[in-house]
Amino acid sequence: MQFFLDTANIDEIKKYAKWGMIDGITTNPSLMAKEGVSLEKRIKEIAAVIDGPISSEVISTDLKGMIEEGKKMSKWHPNVYIKVPMTPNGLMACKALRSEGINVNVTLIFSASQAILAAKAGATFVSPFIGRLDDISEDGMSLIADIMQIFENYEFETKVLVASVRHPRHVVDSMLIGADICTMPETVFSKLIQHPLTDIGVERFLSDWKNAKKK
Ligand code: E4P
User: Fold this and answer.
1) Model pTM?
2) Which CATH number is 130's domain given?
3) Helix, strand, or coil here: 46?
């Protein structure tokens, strides 16, 4: 499984890139809006730090606009993956961009039938939003299990990128199901390492060592 950071903040990306475990980045217009820099500048800055897929989302809603934006963004760096929404135009844009060898991430997936359509359109990634499903009392993780099963049944090459991840349990459960990628905000990534018994253990080892040296 690969870990992506779900952020457009370059300081966060640089901080966690040092750990050597970030395989890619997902951004979206809401995340970009917080940054106050141009999308092109930020995507290029990210590409200089992370050697892996970087999702950059189109703003157009019409087919021609989506394709033009996608083609333009794909020239910024070979690792740019074009994020298109799960709409009829998004699906057609996905097909058109993929036919030109451009990688596409179909986002805002909330059902297995949507994931099937995206896979049939040749999407490189599908992004099911599990946290937003949990928020409305649906079961985001069972959607991941369904999509994984369907993609396996039909040998789709499309990868499942688990998105809208809210806590470490989402990450672990996604891995138990065998999802390909999990994208998470730094608030979740930073929690993956935390355990109070580890902190207590480190403290105790050090104090025992210091006390023994005094004797
Ligand atoms: C994924 O690509 C999205 O950017 C993201 O995971 C959305 O998460 P949210 O539901 O926390 O906004």
Assistant:
1) 0.95
2) 3.20.20.70
3) helix
